[in-house]
Amino acid sequence: MSKRIDVSGLTAYYGSHKAIDDISMNIEPRTVTAFIGPSGCGKSTFLRTLNRMHEVTPGGRVEGKVLLDDENLYAANIDPVAVRREIGMVFQRPNPFPTMSIFDNVAAGLKLNGSYKKSELTEIVEKSLKGANLWNEVKDRLNKPGSGLSGGQQQRLCIARAIAVEPKVLLMDEPCSALDPISTLAIEDLIGELKERFTIVIVTHNMQQAARVSDRTAFFNLAAVGQPGKLIEIDDTERIFSNPSVQATEDYISGRFG
Amino acid sequence: MSTAAVADKRPSTLQGASLPKWSPYAIVGGSIVLGVVIGLVGGLDSKIQWGLIAGLLYVFGTYGIAARVEGKRQAKDRVATSLVWVAFVVAVIPLVSLIWVTISRGVKVLDPYFLSHSMGVVADSEAGGGAYAAIIGSLEQVGLATLIGAPIGILTAVYLVEYGRGRLAKAVTFFVDVMTGIPSIVAGLFILSLMLIFDMQPFGFAGSLALAILMMPVVVRSTEEMLKLVPNELREASLALGVPKWRTILKVVLPTSIGGITTGVMLAIARIAGETAPVLLLVFGNPFINNNPFEGAQSSLPLFIYQQYANSAGANAAYDRAWAASLTLIAFVMILNLVARGIARWKAPKTGR
Amino acid sequence: MDISTQTTDASPPTPQPSVVQQKRNARGATRAGDRVFLGLSRGSGILLLVIMAAIAVFLTYRASLAISKDHGNFLTTFEWNTNLIPPSFGIAVLAFGTVVSSIIAMAIAVPIAVAIALFITHYAPRRIGGLVAYVIDLLAAVPSIVYGLWGGLILVPHMTGLFSWLNDFFGWTGIFSWDGGAPRSMLTVGILLAIMILPVITNVSREVFRQVPQMHEEAALALGATRWEVIRMAVLPFGRSGVISASMLGLGRALGETMAVATVLSPDFDIHASLLNPGGGTFAQNIASKFSEATADGRDALIASGLVLFVITLLVNGAARIIIQRRAEYSGANA
């Protein structure tokens, strides 16, 4: 089900400020691609351009192409709403809908996209919660509000919500940065399982995490504060962490800056 | 199986057929034209109906067209958008009309003569006369009400923020909330019941008391908000120097928040300046100048407007005076509002970001 | 952050040690100052409580005087003849009119106000939204008597077309039948009240919608929700209790509004099925219209009706407070 993403010449702005400049890369299906780089280098902005969430920010603007299996997401006749259904997203802070139960949170996306029978919904919700390794913890309290869960559980609930609509790609914007180490581990294990079914792109601040979970790693950097972020290199994770081709990458990975 | 269910109910492509960008404008234009045509053909004489018909056509037209081209979800989204816009227009029309009419009719007789003369023996249906007595009455009543209401309100807020703990503070907080909701006429009736007991005749200060009651909760609320904005570090820094608490409040807390407090008080003044009902009961109205708020009936601007409107049996001269007085009153209230906001912006507590 | 300078400015100047010593020894004065200041501020708080109690007590006292003289039934009599001997008056018509006009006002104002709040926060371009918010803010400050004057002179004549249309199509319901008299009726009153409370409800709802965390809206967007679906999923559920309490505040205003009703309605003392024919009355309007001709007993009777209004508004505002408080607890749990 998963699809490939080809980005070419992508530049994103906030108003008149250029946030990222001329980025091109290919993301293979059924892989985990990690974005690393110092704060402000535009990796989260770039991630948000991949499902057209960037333009939600006031003043957000994008130039360039993003192809999802040869279909340009920024073509004139493309419906951004449809794009976001194909490319799911998990955010930095867990954000279950506070007024909905656990069940309704997972079913939220489904209910938007057609009418399902109760039995169909129950089945998909169970499957998604199992897929997010959360089922055993919440199966007895599906009608309780999602905000009652712990942070790590909430984040897995958000993952369940995202995969319930069966997107082709899953974007994760620092999904573990607000979590404790044990919850982080649970999410990392989950990512390993999810890549069988989805193309996964993850932004992370934690280089060990990138090394642990990803197949490919992209390093972003910026020349100076206020300058746009750029893609320095993208390669197999192993190579990036052992023998990167650019000096700046090595400096960053060995902790010389950032 | 569930995979199939999901896949079936979703278009497999990212491209939604979508209406061209100009379509909402086209639908607006079309609905207005159709509304006018229907209005003319049907011989409907009320422009309100024309507008309502155009509005309905717009909403249903949007849904129909969008549902055909883009699908139901998009259609709902567009209808929501169009409803929000219609609601905005529907609400703006009366509000704009109110301001426009007040200004255009108010300027007719609003001149120095109007502001410096009173009705005296001018009959309600005759032209001439003015609102001088009413302006004097308003200024005195509102001024006295402020002298009573503002200090009590500010002190209560100081109590709630700086000292308030325990049951008394809770009770005060609760009843301040309750007091905010008292209808102005009830405050008037309260003072009236006191006057009936002492068998007193209407006089300006009685109105001031009712206005002060209406003013207090507003001042308490806004002052409370402002005092809460003063960072605790400031208080602690002062207390740590051994400055007693009352001096800390007077010399550190209040000066820091004085801008916001002034704003709150001015907004409260603007509010009570427009109150009519209690003044009607307690001050009664007086076509002659009475400079003494403590004895004898007075007038006030809002009351003047009401009496010009209600007692004139449709005389245009009286309506003109009512509009002129309205414009004066609105100008007063708006200037207070604008100045208050200006102060708020200019003197915003410098919390150091 | 310049705490140090500010506090140095504010604290007493620090001159020679001897003076410092002197001041420090004046402990008694310090304590007295604290006591006086605390007494003043606490006294003000207590004064507020006393005023509230006094309002209840004195209104009840005068009302009881009036009700004991009432020859009719205070709750059910359909007339207000306080100058008769014995006087006969009842609040049934007033209660009915007050409730009906407020319901009409709420039915019109709440949806429109919510829509405008959404317009400001989610639909309009930022600048226009800000401008609209500012104008609505100012409109909330327009005195009610000006709305009343506008209602009586501008709105009323503009209602005839709408009334005849309603009569043509919905006259058969009885509620919208119209005999062609001046449209100084409950419906017109309701519409004017709606216009008046619109800014209040809009302002509060706007604040609530603005507080919806960005991340909830983004969560909905990332699931592929349209703008309206984002609002349904994330904004309205989050803002529901806020909108309810805003509406209650508006309702409180509508219930107690005096001048706008007095200038528009042509009252009588009967309950009419039709909202379009003139007649009926509200508590506050009745007080204002009957006051000038009322004798001492008549004034007591008006005070009695005012007491009922007072109790009703207390209940409505109390309900609003409780809802707001629940919301505070609820959002605290989510923090």
Task: Report on the architecture of this protein.
The complex is a heterotrimer of chains A (258), B (353) and C (335). By secondary structure, chain A is of the alpha/beta class. Helix content of chain A is 35%, strand content 26%. Chain A has helices at 43-49, 80-86, 102-112, 118-131, 135-138, 151-164, 181-194, 207-213, 237-242, 247-253, and strands at 5-14, 17-27, 32-36, 60-68, 71-72, 87-90, 169-173, 199-203, 216-222, 229-236. In chain A, the strands form two sheets. A six-stranded mixed beta sheet of chain A has the order 6-7-8-3-9-10, sandwiched between helices. In chain A, strands 2-1-4-5 form a four-stranded antiparallel beta sheet, with helices on one face. The mean pLDDT of chain A is 89. Chain B folds into two domains: 3-106, no CATH class; 116-346, MetI-like (MetI-like fold), CATH 1.10.3720.10. The radius of gyration of chain B is 28 Å and the shape is flat. Chain B starts with a helix and ends in a 7-residue tail after the last helix. In chain C, strands 1-2 form a two-stranded antiparallel ribbon. In chain C, a hairpin with a 6-residue loop joins strand 1 (80-81) and strand 2 (88-89). The chains are: A alpha/beta (258), B mainly alpha (353), C mainly alpha (335). Chains in contact: A-B, A-C, B-C.
Write the layout of secondary structure elements.
The complex is a heterotrimer of chains A (258), B (353) and C (335).
Chain A: E1 5-14, E2 17-27, E3 32-36, H1 43-49, E4 60-68, E5 71-72, H2 80-86, E6 87-90, H3 102-112, H4 118-131, H5 135-138, H6 151-164, E7 169-173, H7 181-194, E8 199-203, H8 207-213, E9 216-222, E10 229-236, H9 237-242, H10 247-253
Parallel strand pairs in A: 3-8, 3-9, 6-7, 7-8
Antiparallel strand pairs in A: 1-2, 1-4, 4-5, 9-10
Chain B: H1 2-8, H2 23-41, H3 47-70, H4 72-106, H5 112-116, H6 132-163, H7 166-180, H8 184-197, H9 204-229, H10 232-240, H11 245-273, H12 277-282, H13 301-310, H14 316-346
Chain C: H1 3-10, H2 17-25, H3 27-69, E1 80-81, E2 88-89, H4 92-123, H5 126-139, H6 144-170, H7 186-210, H8 214-222, H9 227-256, H10 259-264, H11 283-291, H12 296-334
Helix pairs in contact in C: 3-12, 4-5, 4-7, 4-9, 5-7, 6-7, 7-9, 8-9, 9-12, 11-12
